[in-house]
Amino acid sequence: MKINPYQFTERISFGYLDQGDEDENGQATNEFKPDFKVWFGYRQQTLNQQYTLEGLNVRHTKLIAIRHNSKVVEGMYGQIKENLFQVLKISSDERNGNGLNTYDILTLQDVAKRGAKIGE
Questions:
Q1: Sign of CA dihedral 42, 97, 16, 53
Q2: Could you tell me how far CA 106 lies from the centroid of its own chain?
Q3: What is the DSSP string of 51-98?
Q4: Which domain of life is it from (predicted)?
Q5: 3-class state of residue 57 by DSSP
Q6: Would you tell me how many other CB atoms lie within 10 Å of the CB of residue 19?
Q7: Quick check: 108 and 88 in contact, CB under 8 A?
Q8: pTM above 0.70, yes or no
Q9: What residue numbers bound the domain in which 63 lies?
Q10: Angle at 87 between CA 62 and CA 73, to 5 degrees
Q11: Which CATH number do you get for residue 48?
């Protein structure tokens, strides 16, 4: 998959969820705590990828490409604009070693419906 770094025109903040304050029902809410930001570009999912994810009951996903960053791990959270996602899968391009032209393809799942709150 050819990746053009000039297509990295969007920003994503990566971080973790922290237990926040209680809501009006007395349940603790989770608050997103950003740690670092990177540039990314959207990638198109193939039909095969879409069908596979649907078969696993995984919906509301996005594919993005970033320059390789070892701080990004599966399970961490990312915020794009006002939307919160969880990193489900990382596919690293290891053909180029750890050079400047090494990229990661991330599968993100929208988690806004799980009661997570985006922090400032």
A1: positive
A2: 6
A3: HHHHHTT--SEEEEEEE--TT--TT-EEEETTEEEEEEEEEE--TTTT
A4: Bacteria
A5: coil
A6: 9
A7: yes
A8: yes
A9: 5-118
A10: 140
A11: 2.40.10.270
Q: What is residue 49's three-state secondary structure?
A: helix
Closest to 110 in 3D by CA, of 73, 72, 89, 80: 80
User: What is the rounded distance in angstroms from the CA atom of residue 88 to the CA atom of residue 80?
Assistant: 15
What gap in Å lies between CA 107 and CA 104, rounded to an integer? Answer: 10
Question: pLDDT in tens for each of the 120 residues of the chain?
Answer: 567 767 888 999 999 988 777 777 777 778 889 999 999 988 876 655 554 555 555 557 788 989 888 899 999 999 999 889 999 888 887 665 555 678 888 988 888 654 444 544
Q: Which two tokens stand for residue 7?
A: 């297509």
Structure-token pair, residue 109: 């799942």
What's the total number of domains in the chain? 1
Residue type at position 26:
G
